[in-house]
Amino acid sequence: MQVEQIYTGCLAQGAYYIESDGEAVVIDPLREVQPYLDRAAKSGAKIKYVLETHFHADFVSGHLDLSKKTGASIVYGPNAQTGFDAHIAQDGEEFSVGKLKIRVLHTPGHTMESTCFLLLDEQGKETALFSGDTLFIGDVGRPDLAQKSDLTMNDLAGYLYDSLRNKVMTLPDEVVVYPAHGAGSACGKNMSKETTSTIGAQKATNYALRADMSKAEFVYEVTDGLTTPPKYFPLNVKLNKQGYESFDEIMERAAQPLSPAAFEEAANATGALLLDVREAQDFAQAFVPNSINIGLNGQFAPWVGALVMDVEQPILLVTPEGMELETITRLSRVGFDHVVGYLEGGIDAWKKAGMEYDHIQSIDPTELAAIMQADENLKVLDVRRPSEYVAEHVKDVENFPLDYLSDFMNELSKNETYYLHCAGGYRSMMAASILKSRGFEHVIDVAGGFKAIQETGLFEVSDYVCPNSLRRQKDAELA
């Protein structure tokens, strides 16, 4: 028996490969399926099933392509309705994989079709639970993503409470828990950085699995503090339910190298978003005018989903050389399939061709401290999330979360100079690039972010709540 977790950090997502006696299953695969095909070929195994724990909202699954390439059956739990051939399993149904069995545990709550898969070893012992978004390490799935007119968030939370207590918490303590996500995913609010655990450990430490917790307490605690889900989530659910274009076709169409002149022509002809995925400080030094920076070195795909409003908008890429295909792959994971091409040779080729380029000034925190001391009316914006800001922030600095930047840009003036910081510099450059592309010429990035600011010891730090920050968050949730 082999159980392998295939974890993708930029999505905080776990897919699983299970093999026994020449047969294999893949659970919750990513859209690019070649790694699973290669893994099966390595040991001469046949992929028999593709198991889906639910209709994922935060990424496009590879179930269709993997099924077409292998002949494997796609399996969902009860209540699933698909636009393609799939086996809709019954609660308690078992599937044989070599000498193993996998039992379906229907666990509605995160969504109504949410299902866990329980692995039984060669002796029939309950060994591992592939818990999808029902149970995370330190948290449970958010119950607000599948609301309908006749099904509220509280209704779903009530279903989740029953699923956990009747199906999950009754399992032996030694059963290993393999969730679909870890820390950084928007599918929960309190997930651990650990990517595996046991039922016993979660019963002892997970706030949502307290033995003395009533359903009313559970509903309140699980729904309290949920932020607005990224706007691309509904599209991903739709693609996973109804089907999508083959990943191979997307790669063939998108992987088009463009000379600087052709890149500029394509930008003018298509109105494409210019997406530069280099590291923040590399971007700051030189970039194609009106480009947006979202670095590959962070949670790239979720941030693209959160900040790029139109998933069907054409996209032109500027990447480090050799990272073009990786960038297209990561975009496709969250349903951004309309890449027109990429700048061949990157920014160096652009500059060598004599094309116009822009830059963003970046200063260190000691420079910021000196400027703030000389000008008490200096406009400094903390673009971290409200929860980060509330915990600790520079006194008198306003919170202007990156997540809501486009919604509340009318509060800023193009005549002002703004100094932006986040936690470490990744998000502040995103914010600066967005503002620059919208005509805010006077934006300055604070390199190193709040971490570097604290390390100087030159700033007074506060922990009170900023009313404007909370208002922005509330307004965005109601929008």
Short overview:
By secondary structure, this protein is α/β, with parallel strands linked by helices.
Beta-strand level of the residues, as a percent range? Answer: 15-25%
The CATH H-level superfamily of the largest domain is Ribonuclease Z/Hydroxyacylglutathione hydrolase-like
Counted by DSSP, the helix tally is 17
Helix content: 25-40%
Shape: globular
Mean pLDDT: 94
| Strand numbers in spatial order across the main sheet | 1-2-3-4-5-6
- CA radius of gyration: 24 Å
Q: Identify the quaternary structure here.
A: single chain
**Terminal Cα separation, in Å?**
49 Å
Biggest sheet record: 6 strands, mixed
Number of strands: 24
Unreliable spans are none
Which class of the largest domain in CATH terms?
Alpha Beta
Look at the helices and sheets and give the structural class. alpha/beta
Can you give keywords for this protein?
479 residues; alpha/beta; Metallo-beta-lactamase, Chain A; Oxidized Rhodanese, domain 1; 3 domains; six-stranded mixed sheet; 17 helices; 33% helix
What do you see in this structure?
With 479 residues, the chain is of the alpha/beta class. It has three domains: 2-234, Ribonuclease Z/Hydroxyacylglutathione hydrolase-like (Metallo-beta-lactamase, Chain A); 245-352, 3-Layer(aba) Sandwich (Oxidized Rhodanese, domain 1), CATH 3.40.250.10; 361-478, Rhodanese-like domain (Oxidized Rhodanese, domain 1). It has 17 helices and 24 strands. It has a six-stranded mixed sheet, covered by helices on one side. β14 (273-276), α9 (280-285) and β15 form a beta-alpha-beta unit. α3 packs across α5 and α7 crosses α11. The radius of gyration is 24 Å and the shape is globular.
